[in-house]
Amino acid sequence: MRKKIVAGNWKMNKTLDEAVALVSEVSNMIKDEVTSDVQVVLCTPSLYLTTLKPYLEGQTRIALGAQNCHEKASGAYTGEISAPMLKSIGISYVILGHSERRQYFGETNAQLAEKVNIALANGLTPIFCCGESLEQRQNEIHLDFVRTQLTEGLFHLSPEQFANIVIAYEPIWAIGTGLTATSDQAQEMHEILRKHIASHYGAEVADNTTILYGGSANEKNAAELFAQPDVDGGLIGGASLKSREFTTVVKANK
Ligand code: PEP
User: Fold this and answer.
1) Is any atom of ligand 1 closer than 6 Å to the C-beta of 132?
2) 176 belongs to an annotated ligand binding site
3) At which positions is substrate bound (predicted)?
4) pLDDT higher for 59 or 157?
5) How deeply is 53 buried, as exposed, middle or buried, from its count of CB atoms within 10 A (0-12, 13-18, 19+)?
6) Please, which of 48, 81, 141, 243 could form a disulfide with 25 given CB 3.0 to 4.6 Å?
């Protein structure tokens, strides 16, 4: 059975004190619901990961994640963070290929394939982002575009490696805009992605792949989105910055 996940992408937000307060609040609020099987991942700024870890001591349902890593293990890449570094501080998830990184830092599918490789080699679970622009959707090339992102970024992996991948479908037009995909639009794309995975890896691997939805998901729309048969949870940006709202989103993933 595939894992249900709700991941928060904090992006470049929060000072250290604010980050400690938010992690502590989320941890306390989630402790109350010990029976739930949802994995929560908090992708905070990498700078804070080591400091935040002790605040989640004993919390089996909340993991910390990074928002990116470099495709090389080490070297002269000023300002970058590597997968071995994340492993060395006990981090288990890393977001790769977020549309903001593709847009502002020029990340390509080929580069992301390398990032996926090094993340997996260091025991990290990649949360691999994909998603189309509004223009691509209006031109009806969105399905092919997103399928190609998966093919080029992930389909070089063996089935055993692929089993460690989490996918996040995030239509670019829905990220940070308040324009959420309808639950039908999300379900349509998630189903198509699952079929695409099945065509390469077989039905069992596809069935076990966690596919998250991201793009203006919040406490009001999360339950309907998560109720779709191929939506296994969410990657949450803005709504992950407030403990009560984020916790409500987590609890909506039943
Ligand atoms: C994101 O950036 O991953 C995201 C989903 O952002 P938001 O929820 O703010 O649209």
Assistant:
1) no
2) yes
3) 9-11, 176, 216, 237-238
4) 157
5) middle
6) 243
Count CB neighbours of 122 within 10 A. Answer: 18
Q: Whose CA is nearest to atom 3 of ligand 1?
A: 237
Instruction: Report the complex ipTM.
Output: 0.97
pLDDT value at residue 32: 61
Question: Could you give the C-alpha distances from 101 to 64, 82, 97, 188, 222, in angstroms and in order?
Answer: 20, 16, 6, 25, 25
234 lines ligand 1 (CB under 6 A): no
Cβ-based neighbours of 57, under 8 Å, separated by 6 or more: none
**8 CA to middle of ligand 1, Å?**
8
Alpha carbon distance 181, 5 (integer Å):
19
> Does the CB atom of residue 235 touch ligand 1 within 6 A?
yes
CATH label of the domain that carries residue 69? 3.20.20.70
pLDDT at 33: 60
Per-residue pLDDT, 58: 87
The answer to whether the CB of 86 falls within 8 A of the CB of 50 is no
Range of the domain at 53: 4-251
The pair of structure tokens assigned to 134 is 């509004």
249 Cβ inside 6 Å of ligand 1: no
Beta bridge partners of 95: 127
Angle at 173 between CA 220 and CA 4, to 5 degrees: 50
Tell me if 216 is assigned to a ligand binding site: yes
The number of domains in the chain is 1
Q: Which of 6, 95, 170, 221 to mutate to test the pocket of ligand 1 (most atoms within 8 A of CB)?
A: 170
Q: Is the CB of 180 under 6 A from ligand 1?
A: no
Q: Whose CA is nearest to atom 2 of ligand 1?
A: 237
Residue whose C-alpha is closest to residue 93's, from 161, 42, 159, 131: 42
